Amino acid sequence: MKTIKDRLLSGDKRALARAITIVESGGKEAADLVKDLFQYAGRAHLIGITGSPGVGKSTLVDALVSEIRKEGKKVAVLAIDPSSPFTGGAILGDRIRMQDHTMDENVYIRSMANRGHTGGVSLGTYDAIRMLEAFGFEIIIIETVGVGQSELAIAKTADTTILVLMPGSGDDIQAIKSGIMEIGDIFVVNKGDLPGANKSATEIIASLELTHNPSGWHPPVLVAISESGEGVERIWEAAKKHKMFLEESNQLSQRRKNKVQSELSEMVAEIARQNLAESLERSQEIRDALADVVAGKLDPHTAADGILRNIFNHQVEA
Ligand SMILES: Nc1nc2c(ncn2[C@@H]2O[C@H](COP(=O)(O)OP(=O)(O)OP(=O)(O)O)[C@@H](O)[C@H]2O)c(=O)[nH]1
Ligand SMILES: [Mg+2]
């Protein structure tokens, strides 16, 4: 019988779906699969799309997919914790187009839960991206609902981050105030058919002029009507231009290095958390420390310090 790895590499979408389910669950099976497929990963252009609920992210993603397919490129979409279901044409008024995409063998759309990670990007997401890259997707779009920290997490994961806003929602003002403007490589004022779109765009441009910009990239602010596809071609052009800019200014490798760094530190923290949970049950020393804190004999800082030593010594010996 062929392995999941062989089936995935030969273009079997069911194997891809299975592989993503495996890496989503984590554990040894996931680690082995990632090890097997790691050498085929790391090649796609990762585009993060974020913004408040209901600004039209999924509608924009759908229109972008159509745009990308015009160039014949293979494109995958990961929708992380969507508040509305994505796959299978569930988007109101968009059934027919979505249906088109799901019939297209060069498109893959998948929803993922972030399993309680407030950052919006869990370790499983990094590995799911690897599975999609190994399968051969050239562009991977990651949609996350922007709620505080998740914008920052997606910006760390993606090569190009698109921040979507809509007119009249106060979103733009909110974004400017909360300092998330810095994460946008491209700004989209969606629902350009509604009043106030140009005003929003002007405000964003004005605030960008005040934003510190060490990379040398000047984020474009584009008005679009995702529902009709108007302005979406320019968004795709801007995304390609941004990737080229990163390559030419040697910032792509730096971004990817930062990404690996945050993934690794998250992974180490996760292993430490698991070890701690196990040690809490297993280790008499840790149980004693807990009892001492409860009894008021030991302060929590000293106890935590002792527990850390215990875990890492244990790790070294193991
Ligand atoms: N008027 C107008 N409505 C739009 C446009 N694009 C999307 N919408 C509508 O906005 C609503 C939300 O669209 P979605 O694409 O689901 O928004 P989203 O940001 O993905 O939403 P969540 O994933 O739930 O956060 C839907 O009713 C869309 O039809 C647009 O360009 N103009
Ligand atoms: Mg959505």
Question: Which terms summarize this structure?
Answer:
globular, alpha/beta, 13 helices, seven-stranded parallel sheet, 7 strands, binds magnesium ion, binds guanosine-5'-triphosphate, Rossmann fold, 318 residues, 2 domains
What is the structure about, briefly put?
With 318 residues, the chain is an alpha/beta fold. Helices cover 55% and strands 12% of the residues.
Describe the structure.
The protein is α/β, with parallel strands linked by helices and 318 residues long. It folds into two domains: 42-249, 3-Layer(aba) Sandwich (Rossmann fold), CATH 3.40.50.300; 260-317, no CATH class. Helices cover 55% and strands 12% of the residues. The chain contains 13 helices and seven strands. It has helices spanning 4-9, 13-25, 27-37, 57-70, 95-103, 123-135, 149-157, 171-178, 197-210, 232-248, 251-282, 284-294, 300-317; strands spanning 45-51, 75-80, 107-112, 139-145, 160-165, 186-189, 221-223. Strands 3-2-4-1-5-6-7 form a seven-stranded parallel β-sheet, with helices on both faces. Helix 5 links the parallel strand 2 (75-80) and strand 3. Residues 84-97 and 116-120 have low confidence and may be disordered. Bound molecules: guanosine-5'-triphosphate and magnesium ion (MG). Magnesium ion (MG) binds next to helix 4.
